[in-house]
Amino acid sequence: MSWLTEPLQFAFFRHGLMVATMAGALCGLIGVYVTLRGMSYIGHGLSHAIFGGAAASALISFNFYIGAGLWGMASALAIGRVTRRRLIGSDAAIGVITTASFAFGIALLGLYGQVRKSVDAAIFGSVLGVTVADVWVVAGVTLAAGVVVFAFYRKLLFTTFDPEVAGVSGVNTERMDALLMLLLSVSILATMKVLGVVLIAAILVIPPVVARMLTNSFARMLWLSTLIGAACGFVGMILSYHLDVSSGATIVLVGAALFAVVFALTGPRGRGRAAGLDHPHDAPAVAGR
Amino acid sequence: MSAGEALVRLEGVTCAYGAGPVLAGADLEIGPRDFTGIVGPSGSGKTTLLRAVLGTVTPVAGTVWRRPGLRVGYVPQVETVNWSFPVTVAEAVLMSRTTGRRLPWPSAAERAEVASVLDRLGIGGLGGRHIRELSGGQQQRVFLARALLRRPQLLLLDEPTSGVDVRARHDILRLLTELNAGGLAVLLTTHDLNGMAAHLPHLVSLNTSVTGRGTPRQVLTPEVLERTYGAPMEVLEHGGMRVVVDPAVLVTPTGARAPISATSSGRDGR
Q1: What is the dotted CATH code of the domain comprising A2-278?
Q2: What ipTM was reported for this prediction?
Q3: DSSP secondary structure string, B3-19?
């Protein structure tokens, strides 16, 4: 048991453990909607987009959360709008908007090398440098995400499964899409310091994919994914202490190992369920004229 | 039906997604007890007409009027459903209940209501199954149940018999007939002229614009069908019903036309 309690004697580790566990749960929760909408790529893309905002915020010494948050929201809404209007496909929209933003951050790095340190932290994450304020931010965002998902559970589910019929049935689908994008960008922003731009996408995708292999029910998938994300964060942090490996990488590797185990144990049935995540509902606007 | 009784009225509706219109100058009126089928070839504007009634497509010309407060149930084409989505039958049906209760889980009353609708449609006891684990006919009924849970006054169905076998098609047709007899207006699109359209009380044929309307006897005629499908089609009489035949399938292996008793245009419109 000492392997569990030993690292807890350090305050920095306790903070990191709390943040990593909550970040895992948060990403597991939001990731369900992201993967079921076939927008797994958006987590990856948005974290890169927010990088541009982080770089710009660091450059002008502006608050990281506000600067990068506003930047991320603008990117998320732009992606959502372009995708909803079917001007181009969602993958293409994410690719264009987020890589442009990432490139902007890189350009800032090149022009003003002094911002490199804080931007490096945003790229690779820094669990062990977590402050008490960061703990509160992640706790607040996790709680808020839980409340939003609870309060809008039915509308979010309907919009995710069948946006056209949801709209006809009185659901304001544009508002639900915007709400989800807001949640996603705030979640990425809150967990970015901990997990980093590079690894955040994995925590958004792995828990829901594992949960999908285990269940055919949306409600069960939602809480399973949240629990799996939290478990990955917790176990990953403990292992990172003992193995002396980067915590972000360990968290992702724990998730990947869990994926491999569940993939093997659930057999063709589980694989069949997860395979469907490649075929999201994306009925073309002019299907069957 | 007087104009004041209409649930929906379309006047000169034109819709376009790109350069050319998909639907041009369509007029349609649906009354409280109507049961209407829209027929036409692929790309003729059937789904667009349905979407114009729904309000999910904005016409570039013409007007769509809906009775204020009209409750519409919509059953989409099964091809547009994401069958891999992790949702059970009960969860899928309950989705349409988006007003009132905000808690994620259903109340006892809602559970009973879902069970009642499923029983009524002959799929009671399947509430815990994943939607992909059902037959084509059962899948169609799940989405019919979802639409009915809204207690609609008008039910719209896009190709409700697409991809289902003959027995399921009969069952769906019987269910819709019962619902219509109970006071529900039904508007559906179908490719299936003989299995579906010929059994409906009222048809509208479409090929970008409306090419015919009336009873099956008035619409399923060689003239209207040729205007609609752009190719000659023959119509047989069988048991008092119209049977539409593609002449191409009536050519014998020797190349001679099989003898048929086709309905001539002169005997139409009875």
Answers
A1: 1.10.3470.10
A2: 0.80
A3: GGG-SEEEEEEEEESSS
